[in-house]
Amino acid sequence: MGYDDSDLLRPPSRPEGHAPVAVKILIAGGFGVGKTTLVGALTEIQPLRTEEELSEPGASVDMIIGVDDKRTTTVAMDFGRITIHGGLVIYLFGMPGQERFWFMWDDLSHGTLGAVVLADVRRLSDCFPSIDYFERRDTPFIVALNCFDGARRHEEEEVRQALDLDPDVPIVRCDARERGSCRDTLVTMVEHAITLVGTRSRAPSPAGSRT
Amino acid sequence: MDPTGDRWWDSGPRPRRKSSPVVRPYALVRGRTRPTGDVLDVISMVYSLRISAPDSADLEPEHLAMLRQCAEPRSVADIASTLDLPLGVVRILLADLRDRELISIHRPRPERLTDIRLLREVADGLRRL
Questions:
Q1: The domain that contains B106 carries what CATH number?
Q2: Which stretch of DSSP H or E encloses residue A127?
Q3: Considering the domain boundaries, does residue B35 fall inside one?
Q4: For residue B118, what are the domain limits?
Q5: Interface probe, candidates B42, B52, B91, B102, chain A, greatest A C-beta count within 10 A
Q6: Residue B117 backbone dihedrals phi, psi, to 5 degrees
Q7: Gap between the Cα atoms of A63 and B39, Å rounded
Q8: Which of A171, A185, B97, B102 has minimal CB crowding within 10 Å?
Q9: pLDDT, tens only, A23-44
Q10: Helix residue ranges per DSSP H, A14-119
Q11: Residue B109 resides in a domain
Q12: What are A46-94's pLDDT values in tens digits?
């Protein structure tokens, strides 16, 4: 194009520069299960707005909603960044759980390293859609039981049966308010992804290409 | 809409924002709802090839803010969050800049998800938190 070079930052022929590698981890689960708490325990939450076609009212909403015009609303979801070093950044995205926000799941989950499905043992069925979704897409995921005060301590096998989970899907306990517990949960998820790379080494990558 | 008044059903808490946008987001993109080209991944890294454009007449201030912001590589999600604009709007504006060859976009490479060395680096990095 006909620009002069006075404001050229870097030669277009070498545009790669020093962009860090970015990876994406999803925090999923039902309404009010503690996704925001978990993201906030690990990193400063930044609001990220996206759009939704205005259709019909939802019964319960775990995102902050404002009206931008008469055809669309914007919804704010949790998003956080963990900079490991200058060349590696981890992005956490809280996936809104309710059915009316499922349209966002494909957008968020594309090319994700893996997911943590946060579950409340008193409302295990709330995480069925998340588990179905990640199983269907071959996305590595673990189930983290958020240990609320007074929650009954289910045995792992009991939960595994209730969720109809494959034996190789890790189940961990997590206190979303505790940074160390959240950190360990994410580490378990990444280690599970590493294990799956080994066992799936002959299978094609589930992720497609996208710019 | 609430039939009893002029409030929308979801006129609840407003998004957290430092300041209200000067223009409505879809006025900013002139009513467009889809960007040109492929959909940008939320973690695609964007960097400016130039910090300003000579024919800035057809660029909005938000375009120019993006150019300045992306002097260092920034993700699409970071850009949307910093500018407090909806993701879809940001994708359209970034596509404008890409079409004018003012930015370069570094998309996430799917093969990285099976790169054991990278995954271990992620796990080790998290352990140090």
A1: 1.10.10
A2: none
A3: yes
A4: 25-127
A5: B42
A6: -65, -40
A7: 24
A8: A171
A9: 999 999 988 899 999 999 999 8
A10: 35-42, 105-109
A11: yes
A12: 888 887 665 544 434 455 555 444 456 677 788 999 999 989 999 999 9
